[in-house]
Specification:
Helix content: over 70%
CATH class: Mainly Alpha
Number of strands: 0
Order of helices and strands: HHHHHHHHHHHH
Shape: globular
Length: 266
């Protein structure tokens, strides 16, 4: 379980979990779950286009994720980005269908971007993954105070000169970075689980932002580590276990929160 190609799997999954825990905290706090779903799935079209013209799929992912973020941020309104997000994902998925129809083969590499290829991560992919992951986390901490203020008290943030629209756009770009880093490892469908499940569970256990962010990272790490171990032991898809553990952590958080409200939590 800890030899050969599995080492790369553990390392790559750990990087993705840390980034997902940090970025996911603000994704949940800002109510950006739809955008976190749209950008990874829409960026899939970029991978298809890159494969069609013979460019590295990571480049295609990054370009389309960024274009999607700029489209949502540019067309959306504060706290009402649902229509712009829906239009962006429809447009990108349509382009993805077009690109795939123009290629002579349905590249397994593109298909794996939907469901991930944790066990297929090579050593030369670890450095780019880590570099983009560090950039994503650094961006969150650079923006931390204005991002937090605009998330919980948007009116007070505007009064202090923090522009909500600018924060929306900046955070969407951060999600785009996280998407570019994570999709080749866990897939566009599973990064959504990691961006939402562990952070939502963490917020049920504590109201302190930094504590919740740390707990979110912890839950994400437990999710990916247990998913790899269970998949290795059972020969079942990793994606199933990522989704199941992520949902279970959120359920545990809601039960804890309910017990705490009734005064029965220790």
């Amino acid at each position: 379980m800890f030899s050969g190609f599995m080492v790369n799997a553990w390392e790559a999954a750990t990087i993705v979990a840390v980034v997902a825990g940090v970025v996911g905290f603000f994704t949940v706090l800002r109510g950006s779950a739809f955008a976190a779903h749209a950008l990874p799935n829409g960026a899939f079209a970029g991978a298809a286009g890159a494969s069609l013209i013979g460019v590295n799929v990571i480049v295609g992912l990054g370009v389309f994720a960024l274009l999607g973020a700029l489209t949502i941020g540019g067309l959306g309104r504060r706290a009402r980005q649902d229509v712009a997000t829906a239009l962006a994902i429809v447009m990108m998925l349509g382009l993805g269908a077009l690109f795939l129809s123009m290629t002579t083969e349905y590249a397994p590499e593109i298909y794996s971007l939907l469901f991930g290829e944790v066990l297929g991560v090579s050593s030369n992919e670890l450095l780019p993954t880590a570099a983009i992951g560090v950039l994503s986390v650094a961006a969150v901490f650079v923006l931390y105070r204005p991002l937090l203020l605009s998330s919980v008290m948007p009116d007070a943030a505007e009064a202090r000169g923090v522009k909500g629209r600018q924060m929306d756009l900046a955070f969407l770009v951060v999600i785009a970075l996280a998407t570019t880093m994570a999709v080749p490892v866990v897939g566009s469908l599973l990064i959504f689980s990691l961006l939402i499940g562990p952070p939502a569970a963490a917020r049920s256990f504590t109201d302190r932002p930094l504590h919740a962010m740390g707990l979110s990272v912890g839950f994400a790490l437990v999710t990916v580590w247990s998913a790899i171990a269970l998949s290795f032991a059972s020969n079942l898809p990793i994606g199933f276990f990522v989704g199941a553990v992520s949902a279970s952590s959120y359920a545990a958080g809601r039960i804890w929160a309910a017990r705490r409200r009734t005064g029965r939590a220790p």
